[in-house]
Amino acid sequence: MLQETLNNIVDFDPEALDAFLNLFSPLDFKKGMVFAQKGEYSRNIAFVKSGVLRAYYSNDRGEEYNKTFFTENNFVGAYSALVTGEKNLIDIDALTDCNLLVAEYKKVKDLYAPFPKVERLARILAEQFFVRKEKREIELVTLEAKDRYTIFQKEHPELEQRIPQYHIASYLGVSPTQLSRIRRQR
Fold first, then answer.
1. Are 110 and 100 in contact (CB under 8 A)?
2. What DSSP letter does each residue of 135-175 carry, written as one string?
3. 33-92 pLDDT, tens per residue?
4. Nearest to 41 by CA among 70, 83, 75, 76
5. pTM exceeds cut of 0.90
6. Which of 8, 33, 121, 184 is the most buried (most CB within 10 A)?
7. If 0-12 CB within 10 Å is exposed, 13-18 middle and 19+ buried, where does residue 89 land?
8. Do 92 and 54 touch, CB atoms closer than 8 A?
9. Is the separation of the CB atoms in 109 and 125 below 8 Å?
10. How many Cα atoms occupy the beta-carbon half-sphere of 12 within 13 Å?
11. Does residue 30 register a pLDDT over 80?
């Protein structure tokens, strides 16, 4: 699964692919477990083989705002903290039981010089992440909630059956009551 995903992004030579794949170890991650915690230093990235994780912000009142979801065949990590070496600004936890492949981010970076295709992979993944992030930010400020919900359904058709509705509401920037109203109107 990981190998297929990687080869769809970059045409790896066998040596680079083996070096990259050998960094990852399987980890069963139970629902509710924390992958990255606000205020701590992140060291790991993971590839999601199965399950759903969320990245979210929380304020001083304990209110949570879902930033993004990580599902199968995607990489998960507190990227800005990993890149800057600073403490996490977000939390990442498992919304379902997950099967992950985990690697130390530093070891991935150590492969950049000897294997330029690994660095190319990282650049492409960062570019894709940036594009998704920018698109989402624009949607949050320019679209009505019902339109954001329609986009969510198209981009994540399986998530409504897998995670609680209040997480979807938070992601859409609406209250659970507003989401219920939007869903009833369809």
1. no
2. HHHHHHHHS-HHHHHHHHHHH-TTGGGTS-HHHHHHHHTS-
3. 999 999 999 999 999 999 999 999 999 998 899 999 999 999 999 999 999 999 999 999
4. 83
5. yes
6. 121
7. middle
8. yes
9. no
10. 21
11. yes
CA dihedral sign of residues 134, 137, 143, 144: positive
Question: What backbone torsions phi and psi does residue 120 show, to the nearest 5 degrees?
Answer: -60, -45
Strand pairing category for 53-58 and 98-104: unpaired
Q: What is the pLDDT of residues 108-142, one digit of tens each?
A: 999 999 999 999 999 999 999 999 999 999 999 99
- Which pair of tokens denotes residue 60? 């001083």
The residue type found at 110 is D
